[in-house]
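During the no-cost extension, the postdoctoral fellow (Dr. R.K.) reprocessed legacy sequence entries with the updated structure-token encoder. One reprocessed record is reproduced below for audit purposes.
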Amino acid sequence: MTGGRSLSRRALLSGALALATFGGRDARAEDVAVPVPLQVELLAKVAAYDKNLPNRAGSKVKVLVVSKPRDDDSERVAEQAKRELAKKDTIAGLPSEVSSVGFSDAKDLAKRIKSKRIAVVYLASGFSSDELGSVAKALDGVSVLSAGALPKQVSGGLVLGFDLVGGKPKLLVHLKQAKKQNVELSSKVLKLVKVVE
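Re-encoded structure tokens follow.
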């Protein structure tokens, strides 16, 4: 009987630990509709259909992952995205390189993208609608494919996002912002996306 009690207690403690470890994450990350590894796969595929990517990238596709400092969830999503992107040897047939940065402000981000010749920028979770609006404004005229971890980031001003529709991943594209950022997606991709205003 004592063995049964200690087993139950152990099982209960294990369950509580699992809930604390994974349950808290799911609650905080519930807006990340599509798992980050799948987002990275889709992002790489879409980048290959951006007609302006070769000119923007040159000899190497540089990807920048941006997180909100001191936001555990944002940093976790960014770290996961960076890890998945680092597994990619090539994007659109070109060698790829991933780096990361903590967000300070939109103008600094745009300056970094231009000076480092960043071809793709991925924003993790944790950005307010005001920050996203500032990023969209700062990237107006900057040639870069911007993507976000959360579906709402596309309507906030990023070019590409990911959502679940009917239990299946769906690409979201902000066409007006795409034009402002010199992103020209092939008609093959546009047939598969949901256009966001």
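The longest strand covers residues 94-102. The longest helix spans residues 2-28. The remaining legacy entries will be reprocessed before the final report is submitted.
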